[in-house]
Design goal:
The chain has a single domain, classed as Alpha-Beta Plaits (2-Layer Sandwich), CATH 3.30.70. Helix content is 38%, strand content 30%. It has four helices and four strands, in the order βααββααβ.
Length: 97
């Protein structure tokens, strides 16, 4: 299993837009249909601007294919509009500890 943390440093209005998008018809309902998807959560930092996506996928490659699908379908333009910093993506594995 691959764990993915996406950090989205948004401006305040951008954070609200991202939350609305996630709940909408093109948001997480689409994410949940992709091959390898296991779980997703949207977490809001205390500053009410920084959004973290916590995701679980079967493999890193399946997440990367999903992410490419999103970028190819306009997510990059949307993110440019709502971010005030650079989006970061981390791939993690469970150490079993």
């Amino acid at each position: 299993m691959t764990y993915v943390i996406v950090k989205c440093p948004c401006h305040e209005e951008g954070a609200s837009k991202l939350i609305d998008w996630a709940k909408g018809d093109d948001g997480f309902s689409v994410t949940r249909t992709h091959k390898g998807f296991k779980h997703i959560e949207l977490l809001v930092d205390e500053d009410n601007k920084t959004i973290y996506l916590y995701e679980q996928w079967d493999t890193k490659e399946e997440h990367q294919a999903y992410f490419k699908f999103r970028v190819d379908n306009g997510l990059g333009d949307f993110m440019e509009e709502i971010l005030e910093g650079e989006l970061s993506l981390s791939y993690l594995s469970n150490s079993g500890a």
